[in-house]
């Protein structure tokens, strides 16, 4: 998909279609649409006056021009009320534009950006627009036979702008949007891939290849070294599978001086059967997505490197399959982690926290200013918050504020759950330091309590993406399947990073 920027006017653009954006509460047409409307014998103003088109969010109509302007058609896209416009509303409108035109078999067009009335500074709005177009056009078709008549591709979009503003800022913003959308699509591809084709070993190979392409350091820790490190959580979860575990370490800008080190940790369970505590068969196929946190970390590292942020960022991804083999870990077993702490495994389906515990303890070696982990950790978080928002818990007020701000900017929103001392009682064990489940109540919180035992030496935030990592149906710029949630939030967090003032 090619996005270009051009100074021009709608009525002179020789396109298959020119797109205009309208606000529901606008009293008049914008200048560019008014000129086109006049050339088209006032058809647009007539439609609006007669309420045959009401510009509610993501409503569309396409009209032929009959040669009265150079474009063959014009498309009107509703933006809702002007006072409610946000970068995400623009992201949605852009996604609606792209998929509507693609599904009509139109392969290219032009958008009249002045009709959005983008406020200054314009950068984040143009970035959001390009993200929306590209994220909406994503399709996972690796294993699907597509008939020729269904192989529509929307290949090119021209963003028409007036001569005002700063074209350099617009181009940079569009480029950033393209980089971020590519990284989200990369994560979506990883998550949507069947588990047999993304074992821990294959995922490690993908990480190596990606690292070479974007110029970041990559180390893969394999079984012998994992044993030597004493990562009992990762070893314990993996022992029921024929596939050995891997621990992926990605590092960007390792030699940066006078920089905070920010560590991302992503859960990399490439398939979760539940182990001996076997899951129900219903929807178990979606458990290929249990490495969504790891995919988000890989995608974010890819984008951060390509955008050349002057930061030091580390990505840690513990990878394993959780299978019910003859050698699988059993309820009642005790494991010893990299940190030396022990845990009673009360439920083998609470495996994500076991592998994260090793990675979070390992993160200490980087003397991090902040650590953020992402994991499809608990069904309880989905029960509490649904699929709209990610659960957030942590030990640092400042870091939580930063993560929340990045989530609001990218519309990958988070909602804080309490991490109070009273909940720690639920994970006490009679025979080990802790146990890996806390009973039937507050499961998302007690899971974070477990993780908190390995994050005592640095500021930390945990993001439970169990509800937001998977889309059950299409929306304006996401399709059924993997959402790639977390990539845009992490990139935004690093983009706006400055010195971290909190001292642990």
Summarize the structure.
The protein is α/β, with parallel strands linked by helices. The protein contains 15 helices and 20 strands.
Structure write-up:
With 504 residues, this protein is an alpha/beta fold. The protein folds into two domains: 161 residues, Leucine Aminopeptidase, subunit E, domain 1 (3-Layer(aba) Sandwich); 314 residues, Zn peptidases (Aminopeptidase), CATH 3.40.630. It is 35% helix and 20% strand. It contains 15 helices and 20 strands. The strands form four sheets. Strands 7, 8, 9, 10, 11, 14, 15, 16 and 18 form a nine-stranded mixed sheet that branches. The protein is elongated and about 80 Å long. The two termini are 46 Å apart.
What's the helix and strand layout?
Elements: E1 2-7, E2 17-22, H1 31-39, H2 43-49, E3 60-64, E4 73-78, H3 87-103, E5 108-112, H4 123-137, E6 156-161, H5 167-192, H6 200-214, E7 217-221, H7 223-229, H8 232-238, E8 246-252, E9 261-266, E10 268-272, H9 292-307, E11 312-322, E12 334-336, E13 342-344, H10 352-362, E14 370-375, H11 379-385, E15 390-394, H12 397-410, E16 414-416, H13 421-424, E17 434-435, H14 443-452, E18 460-464, E19 470-471, E20 481-482, H15 487-495
Parallel strand pairs: 1-6, 2-4, 2-5, 5-6, 9-11, 9-14, 10-11, 13-17, 14-18, 15-16
Antiparallel strand pairs: 3-4, 7-8, 8-11, 12-13, 15-18, 19-20
Helix pairs in contact: 3-4, 4-5, 5-9, 6-9, 8-10, 9-15, 10-14, 12-15
């Amino acid at each position: 998909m090619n996005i270009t920027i051009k100074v021009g006017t709608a009525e002179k653009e020789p396109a298959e279609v020119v797109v205009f954006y309208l606000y529901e509460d606008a009293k008049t047409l914008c200048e560019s649409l008014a000129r086109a409307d006049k050339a088209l014998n006032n058809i647009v103003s007539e439609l609006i006056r007669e309420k045959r088109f009401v510009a509610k969010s993501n409503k569309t109509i396409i009209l032929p021009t009959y040669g009265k302007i150079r474009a063959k058609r014009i498309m009107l896209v509703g933006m809702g009320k002007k006072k409610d416009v946000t970068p995400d509303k623009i992201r949605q409108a852009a996604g609606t534009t792209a998929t509507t035109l693609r599904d009509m078999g139109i392969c290219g067009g032009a958008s009249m950006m002045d009709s959005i009335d983008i406020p200054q500074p314009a950068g984040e709005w143009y970035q959001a627009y390009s993200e929306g177009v590209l994220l909406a056009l994503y399709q996972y078709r690796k294993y699907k036979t597509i008939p020729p008549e269904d192989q529509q591709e929307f290949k090119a979009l021209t963003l028409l702008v007036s001569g005002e503003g700063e074209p350099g800022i617009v181009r940079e913003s569009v480029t950033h949007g393209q980089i971020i959308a590519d990284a989200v699509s990369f994560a979506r591809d990883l998550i949507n891939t069947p588990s047999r084709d993304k074992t821990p070993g294959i995922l490690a190979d993908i990480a190596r290849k990606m690292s070479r392409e974007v110029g970041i350091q990559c180390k893969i820790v394999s079984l012998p070294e994992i044993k030597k490190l004493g990562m009992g959580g990762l070893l314990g979860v993996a022992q029921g599978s024929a596939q050995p575990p891997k621990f992926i370490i990605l590092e960007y800008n390792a030699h940066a001086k006078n920089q905070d080190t920010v560590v991302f940790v992503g859960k990399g369970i490439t398939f979760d059967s539940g182990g001996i505590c076997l899951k129900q068969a219903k929807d178990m196929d979606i458990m290929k997505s249990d490495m969504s946190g790891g995919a988000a970390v890989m995608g974010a590292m890819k984008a951060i490197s390509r955008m050349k942020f002057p930061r030091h960022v580390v990505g840690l991804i513990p990878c394993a399959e959780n299978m019910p083999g003859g050698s699988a870990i059993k309820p009642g077993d005790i494991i010893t982690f990299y940190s030396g702490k022990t845990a009673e495994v009360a439920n083998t389906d609470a495996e994500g926290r076991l592998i994260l515990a090793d990675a979070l303890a390992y993160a200490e070696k980087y003397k991090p200013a902040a650590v953020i982990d992402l994991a499809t950790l608990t069904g309880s978080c989905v029960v509490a918050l649904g699929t709209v928002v990610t659960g957030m818990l942590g030990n640092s007020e400042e870091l939580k504020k930063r993560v929340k701000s990045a989530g609001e900017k990218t519309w990958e929103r988070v909602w804080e759950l309490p991490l109070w001392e009273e909940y720690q009682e639920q994970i006490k064990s009679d025979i080990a330091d802790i146990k890996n489940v806390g009973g039937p109540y507050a499961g998302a919180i007690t899971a974070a309590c477990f993780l908190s035992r390995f994050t005592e030496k640095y500021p930390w935030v945990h993001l439970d993406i169990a509800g937001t990592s998977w889309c059950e149906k299409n929306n304006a710029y996401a399709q059924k399947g993997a959402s790639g949630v977390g990539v845009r939030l992490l990139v935004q967090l690093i983009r706006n990073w400055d010195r971290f003032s909190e001292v642990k």
